[in-house]
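<instruction>
Derive structure tokens from the sequence

<record> Sequence and structure tokens follow
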Amino acid sequence: MRKYLLFLLIFNYSLLYAQTADSKISLSFENKNIVEVLIEIEEKTKYQFFFEENWLGLKKLSGEYSQTKLSDILNDIFKETNINYFIKENRVILTRGSIIYDELADGFLQTEEEIQGIEADGVKEKNQAANPIFYVNSTKKSNAVETILIGKEDGRSVKNSYQLEGRVISKQGEPISGLNILVPNQNSGTVTDIDGNYNIRLPKGVNLIEMRGIGVENLKKRLVVYSDGVLNFRLEKNFEELGEVLIEANARDNVKSALTGVEKINVSEIKTIPLVLGERDILKVATTLPGISTAGEAASGYNVRGGKTDQNLILLDEGVIYNPTHFFGIFSGLNPFTTGNVSIYKGSIPAAYGGRLSSVFDLNTRKADKEKFKGEVSIGPVTGNVSLEIPIVEGKSSLIVGGRGTYSDWILNTIDDEALQDSQASFYDFVGKYNHEFDNKDELNVSGYYSSDVFSITSDSLFSYTNRMFALSYSKVLNEKHQGELVATNSNYNFNLDYESDFDNNFDSGYTINESEVKLKMKYLHNKAHTLNYGISAKYYNVSPGEVRPGNSESLIEPLSIPKERAVETAVYIEDSFEVSDKLLINAGLRYSFYTAFGPAEINTYEDGLPRNETTNTGVESYDSGEVIETYGGPEVRVSGRYFLRPNFSTKLSYNNTYQYIHTLSNNTTAAPTDTYKLSDSFIKPQRANQYALGFFKNFDDNIYELSLEGYYKTADNLLDYKVGADLFLNNNIETEVLQGDGKAYGVELLLRKKKGALNGYLGYTYSRSFVKLAGDFQEETVNNGDFFPTNFDKPHDFSAVMNYKLTQRFSFSANLVYQTGRPVTYPIGKYNFNNSEYVMYSDRNQFRIPDYYRLDLSFNVEGNHKIEKFAHSFWNISVYNVLGRNNPYSVFFVTDNGEVKAYQSSIFAIPIPTITYNFRF
């Protein structure tokens, strides 16, 4: 190991840049590290180098120099390092960051009065730039604060302060948001954003910084700042301080953020919540929060603030997931073992998101640990789950993979019931993410997701559907204020139905939707008061609405295919987070979206002034490939603001308007995989919505308790609905069956959360209403006399309680209590005769309601012992879903039997469902 000169070890301070030798040398090297290059220079010249080898790394260099000054060669070699050098006669001394002088700067020994006099004459910057930086790196245990050198000193710089940026993540590779980074001696600081990034300006010289946050270790570092630099941190999680919080919104975000209607779910802490069949379920947990519900137990899709299920944008690593459920809604299609951050925007939707009216579910696959191989396994009564974290290049790149599957087919085959012998009910999914950090500024992420479901219970129909998603993102820090990310995604959803019977009408049918998107997202830190986000995106839709094919050669079914639909949706956006004052924060954004539907296509034409049906059809209009059929577009305003009434009490106000160009076609009361998709065209206009929200947010007792009260009012245009008795299956004239009308929704959401202590959890209550009005120009296009009537998912009262009580560090109890108003339904109310035939008369649409829904779940949780040195850490969950055995109705339907109309109720889980699940992590 090479050593410093004696005087450098004694003083350990930075001096100024000195004269270099003028002698010229010739040198050629290829694919050598810096140490090897310096040794070659020593062998060919009289110079001798003094340095520590571990400063220089193993990066390979190549170069060729002819009669070049030694100083120029060294400048090239060290330009991407923090190494400076000092040449004195035939000795070259290397330093980290600092510069060595052989004389003191002018004014170095001036008195305080003399310095003040110079500053008064306006030469302060020049004089201070000449002063060296002194620091003492103590080795005493009582003062063992690590010293880190930032950047590289430049004798020509006259700056007094420099920019430091970086990223803070956990040892598991997860970004740490909301972490306070404080500089006590400067009374300044900053907070990491949702991706763990931070940016702070520090004065030149020695600075002591402190990092403080909930659930992570506190950390102190001494920074010697020579120039702008990048510094990343990996922190240990501090589980003892975090306690047993189930779902945690960052304390600072709850009161300080300008956005309304935002929920964040900590996926790693939902394991104690009792759920059906022992499967952790991210999206089911989301439905226990105010404003988010489903049309019924095990229903696919989610209704957010009175919106339809197709009005939610569900993203995994920026890629769209069209059907995020398994078993038609019983399980979530998203793996909790591999999912990191979950943010749900139901009020203030950032300008970067578009294409849906009601909400955005933004999920990210977490990054694997880059240091250690890790894994997690779960074994439940009908499902198994495994995830692995694999370091690829230590400290640089890693891969996380996860897979889930069910062995319910095996269970069905063991049941002694002839009706179930040919049944199938299975699913599996895979997810993976590769992360590579090229340096402190560049990062690559590659993600993939695939899921498959097959379902057939005592039926002659076999349902199957698949999701496929691929996402590629490359992010780069351009400079101290500017950073960007380029994202490319592709999503594909396919549904298929195979029908077999004893007659010659076997068939299989299905539909596919595929979309590809490219977007550029930029962030600019203008100053402390302004943070700008802006970008551009382009999305290509390719929809195959449906086709039917004969099931075999004997089938009498004629093949039929609905023509494909194609469209492009583009958007530009800009958003500014503007800190007007210490109390007022405004987030203002503008998004402009533009939509184009194009051929090839054949579009039906109809007589003007008459309803669209077969009798008014006048022919078709043909469009060639690429020819524009219809265009839509418009501005989308996103404005929200926060005002501090007190330091821990704020009020927020927001307004959003949104456009949606894709629709689902379904005449079911709940979402189902059989729903198909339709793009906006000449007949079906894009949906539009406006939402206003006002909320009050307060924290108590050092952020242990959080209380929020938020109200909203929403209006919508061009909501898609259907005529009475509409035929939507493989209909080439779908415009004759659909209606578009106005909607309105309003509600109040209350959430009380206790984040710490032996007893923790939250209580949520929502009062909400959702209505639609279908008032066409003709009687057949009008429903309920053109008046507003409740939507299929209008449920005024919704109450949830999610509680956890910790007996010891290893044992705890958890409980869920859910109550919801029954959803609307249309009942038969009488009979009538017409042309010697008897018909059933129905009430106005959605005039009645099915019975109310309530459910209690309990679980007992057992953690393994907390020894650090052990192969795996285990967790047992013993739960009972629907403890009270409530026969909650899923739907109510009517059957005519011998001239008598009979009502029937279907239920999903009418008895208590016990479950034992075993998890272990290694």
Remarks:
- The CA atoms of residues 342 and 749 lie 20 Å apart.
- Residues 34-44 form the longest helix (11 residues).
- Confidence is low (pLDDT under 50) at residues 1-21, 110-130, 239-249.
- The longest strand covers residues 530-550.
